[in-house]
Amino acid sequence: MLCFFLYLDLIDGTTSNGTPALLGFIGGRCASVWTSVTCEERRKGLLECLSRYFGGHNISTHLIEYAEKDWNLEPYSGGCPCHNATTGSMKDFVDGLRKPYKNIHFAGTETASQWMGYMDGAVDAGRRAASEVLVSLLDNDQLKDNEINQYTFESQSKLVFKKMNE
Fold first, then answer.
1. Does residue 100 sit in the same domain as residue 158?
2. Does 1 fall in a domain?
3. How far apart are CA 84 and CA 105, in angstroms?
4. Which among 6, 34, 75, 123 is least surrounded, fewest beta carbons within 10 Å?
5. pLDDT tens for residues 126-152?
6. Do 138 and 159 touch, CB atoms closer than 8 A?
């Protein structure tokens, strides 16, 4: 059998309590090909490919569980686990997505400065928005523009609380 993927994004998905896991995505034309076969055929193909990746070891003897998700069947995802705009398409809009409107601050993976579409991006955007809220709670005279680091929540919150206690 042909190696399972020409395009495989494989991630260490080990949980915080140490439960081991591998997480992978099939994309592009390979996804079209592999969605036309059965779940068991995909599982078998994946195990054969992973066995090659890991030096010929029989990976199936170590498999605890196999689960898969076909994002094409999800009505609101557009066929993928996250949406990423094509190269250059956000250059005119991203500032508008991040810019607060009155007392409303926007956060979410789509507003991230890096790792858009992923959990890391959502955390980055949440920290940015939290920093914006902290700054908005201060009087304008208390914090100078050059003291604001809008992408680092930890340093921003320390600075804000220091200014508030002066």
1. yes
2. no
3. 21
4. 75
5. 988 888 888 777 655 555 545 545 444
6. no
